[in-house]
Amino acid sequence: MSRLxxxxxxxxxxxxxxxxxxxxxxxxxxxxxxxxxxxxxGSEVPSGRIRFAVLGDSDxxxxxxxxxLGDPGDRGGPWRATTWQWTEVLARLRGDQIDLGExxxxxxGKYRAYFDEAFGFLARTPPKDDYRYNFAVSxxxxxxxxxxxxxxxxxxxxxxxxxxxxxxxxxxxxRIGVNDxxxxxxxxxxxxxxxxxxxxxxxNACVDAIGEAVALIRRRHPDTYVVLVGVLSNADGSNEFDKxxxxxxxxxxxxxxxxxxxxxxxxxxxDRRVYFLDDRAWFRSLWGTRDGQGRPLYKTVHLSPGxxxxxxxxxxxxxxxxxxxxxxxxxxxxxTQHLVTSLNAAFGLHLKPITDAEVIAFLRPSFAAxxxxxxx
Length: 376
Description:
InterPro entries: SGNH_hydro_sf (IPR036514). This protein is of the alpha/beta class and 376 residues long. It has helices at residues 3-31, 86-94, 110-118, 152-161, 178-181, 184-192, 197-220, 247-269, 279-287, 329-347, 356-369; strands spanning 50-56, 98-99, 103-106, 128-131, 171-175, 225-229, 274-277, 288-290, 296-298, 301-304, 307-313, 319-321.
């Protein structure tokens, strides 16, 4: 066989390979009629609003997701219908100014997501009911911002890349880390020594992963703002009240949490479009802290006659935290109020502040639903 003949055969085979890949891609997207990786049941979103995306864990995944959060005892149990996540509060109170994307069923299984990416399609996993730009997933750890199977930051940016102009002046909020450094065993190590090697390694890895996500967003979308939310201390949860009963232990935990927050502060200080939101400071401003001996000495938040919200766990809205350990409807509503104020201050936005009257009006159905529990 002549050299020319061999060259022609190789070229022909290469052309067949390319054509085959194109046909496969067409078959996947057209002939097989598979739905796109983000299958929505939502309506068109009005223009002129600020795009708002979320990366994170269960602290930001919408509570009214029934695909992933199918247990009826989740997120408020018997009061789930009126127990709202902060993203859901934001959409309801400032949906005319903030665009979280259509509400719908988004995402696929992880293997389908790998396949979609391999052929150049948008991908996300797992399937859940949520806003299109909310990539937060319950149980996510910091390495899932850039790593498999979630790749939250990478997949969000790929979605943003399809409409780069729409994300000019948009916002990406990153709230993650508590699953890395908030576990009981990690806090216990910190309580004995805030310089302990394992918590320090977890903290550094987490801050590095968040830094990579920020760099990716800022590189591909330089006119998009980024909000970095600090980590909460699970030592403030009522299930841990009988632990670490000394001022020194609690101080050590707080110092250890501070290492994480300081890492985020450093990222924010390096870029005027990146803002650090101190979550523990906000919590302390409402419910306070333990006393000097490490004993619970939390305050009660009074919003309206009969609405006394304590730092306790339970699905009734009089509790700051629902039974499954996540923020309750009052916590999320007040946090959303604080977030809007912070965004205006940080980035010079002109979002309409959420008034106390709006907070009361929004929460009224939640407290009305709790009346059969025997509380006023």
